[in-house]
Amino acid sequence: MKSKMKIAVINQPLANRGDEAAHKAFIRAMSKAFPEYQIDVIFLCVEQWLIDSIKVEEENVSYINIPRVRGFVRFEQISFLFDNFSFSYLHPSLRKFHNLLKEYDRVVCAPGGMCMGGFTNWDHIWQLDVARRLNKPVFYWGRSIGPFTEESFKKKLFKKCSIRLLKYFSYISLRDKVSVDIAGQFEVNADEVVDSAFLEIPATKIPESILKDIDGSEYVVFVPNSLTWHPRYKEIPQKKIDEFYLSIVEILETKFADKKIVMLPQTYKSVINDYEYFLKLKEMSGNKNIIVIDENQSSDVQQEIIKKSCLVIGARYHSVVFAINNEIPFISLSYEHKMKGLLEVLEMTDRMVEIQDIFDGKTSVFESSLDKVEHLVSGKLEKPSASQARQLVQSGFERFCEEVSK
After folding, report:
1. How far apart are CA 44 and CA 64, in angstroms?
2. How would you classify the pairing of strands 290-292 and 171-174?
3. Does a cis peptide bond (omega within 30 degrees of 0) precede residue 147?
4. How far apart are CA 365 and CA 7, in angstroms?
5. Which of 199, 356, 375, 399 is the most buried (most CB within 10 A)?
6. Which domains does the chain have, with CATH numbers?
7. Distance (Å, rounded) from C-alpha 349 to C-alpha 384?
8. Neighbours of 99 (CB within 10 A)
9. With the CA atoms of 350, 351, 355 and 356 taken in that order, what torsion angle do they form, in degrees rounded to the nearest 10?
């Protein structure tokens, strides 16, 4: 009797409601597409409660967490820096991961952010390189990649290892046009899809405590982003970034004086603490109509809140994805190329305010960006159609399934 095919899903990001939404939609879709396969989502050295917060309950889906032993990332990085991959297997957690991955027929990289690129995530490429060295078919699904730089030996090495992986993968789909173009520069073909959250439209109830705070009022959703955690913005004074968001609050106060402003934290239980940052902005603004939703609300609840709003202004990628998915007018404060790439694919760049360069000291650029926000808020923003996004991600998912089934 032929044994059941086993699929390992690795590199799933955690502690982010957007990544949670992408995970749930993707794993549910995989479970339905491959009911006869065993799908195991494998985590390396993470806290169990974080896994529990995103779990999908399906009969053929399981979650495996390799216990944490300190120092594993250092072992991963050294194995690349000294071109001695076997060294990493001296670490007990990494050795367990390697031995576990031997059992699988296919390896899928879960949807998520830009770990292969600007964030130089050695753990991300280490897990993928284990699969490559085991000669496993690897399917890189719905990620963003880049930018790659060569400003240091480590950056050059990371780029070299990433390109080698990209050329090895059995199938690649990337969730924005800029990432697809970057892959093309390395002569790597990639399907252009959009975020996996577009694979479904979740429906749930908004908790009574939140409904009580909103009190039946109409509201706009505003999702700022402290940004200084990001490599591009780490040298920017937080005060300058705060000033930009507080100016947007003032614009909303003028345009929507009778509406509440709801802030939705995208990160949770993370060193990048959206919830605390939003409370700080609320206090600084003095606006009593701002409601900061607690960080414990699931991505499904967040989409339901957005579904009932009249406008979304988002400086986080998935706040824009959630707005499009629920066909709510939005303004994207695009701090990274993944946001620009998504809107280029969907031909919605007219709703985008590019903020990558506005904190670099040029007052005119800062003010012109705020002018554009005010212009968009004052105009009539039509409801976006999600049909193109859903068609793109669904057709990409069907190609992915065909490749996995070969």
Report:
1. 9
2. unpaired
3. yes
4. 48
5. 199
6. 6-192 (3.40.50.2000), 208-386 (3.40.50.2000)
7. 12
8. 11
9. -60
Instruction: List C-alpha distances in Å: 185 to 146, 171, 182, 312.
Output: 11, 17, 5, 34
Rounded distance between C-alpha atoms, residue 186 and residue 167, angstroms: 8
Compute the distance between CA of residue 393 and CA of residue 406 in angstroms, rounded to an integer. Answer: 20
- Taken as a whole, the chain contains a residue count of 406
Q: Which two tokens stand for residue 341?
A: 């790439």
Which residues are registered as beta bridge partners of 145? 116
Task: Check the CA dihedral 316-317-319-324 and report its sign.
Answer: positive
Q: How far apart are CA 236 and CA 106, in angstroms?
A: 43
pTM (2 d.p.):
0.95
Number of C-beta neighbours around residue 324 at 10 A: 28
**Structure tokens of 293?**
């939703």
Residue 292 corresponds to which amino acid? V
Q: How far apart are CA 136 and CA 134, in angstroms?
A: 5
Token output for 391: 């068609």
Phi–psi pair at 394, nearest 5 degrees: -70, -40
Strand partners, 64: 42
Q: Are 68 and 91 in contact (CB under 8 A)?
A: no
Give the bridge partners for 291, in sequence order.
262
